[in-house]
Amino acid sequence: MVLSRRTVITAAMLGVTTYIGLSSVPGSAHGVKPVQIPITANEDLGDLNEPQQALAQFYRAFNTRDLKMIDENFAHSDDVAIDNPLGGIRRGADEPHKMYEGVFKSPADVHVEFWDYTIHRAGDVFWAVGRERGTYRDGGDVRELNIRTTRIFQLMDGRWRQMHHHGSIEDAKLLSDYQNAVRAAISCAV
Length: 190
Description:
Helices cover 35% and strands 32% of the residues. It is an alpha+beta fold. Helix 2 packs antiparallel against helix 3 (67-73). The chain starts with a helix and ends with a helix.
């Protein structure tokens, strides 16, 4: 098997990060309780050089349906990867825009907040591990949503840019209902 330089660098970075352990961003050292105060989209975005503000920017963009802000939050790189309950695995610089555009056009009207999270940092990379909770519309009904979420950011030109998002829904029925509602809403909107 032949590995690309990018694959080797990524594997090495993840290996070093694992070896280093959980380098701390203030308040996120190993063993510290997860933050229970949610990031809701109403926070002051302040200094986007700070990890928590980069997260707040993403949730503001998502909950206000701001595609321009989504584009600003994600890196403009073919190394971007998203593994989402709605879109499967998507890779490439344009994929966040395409995926979130479909969600935003959907009458499913999804809103989430990020909570029960920790932030970890190794050099110019930080990752946030937590949960999203929120609601979505399924026809006339409003339904609850619970997603396990990891987001990875890289410091680029003095700003944190999202490189990876992974979301998982543990409850199989909730996953199926959510996928059906949003996909049906997207297909109706198109």
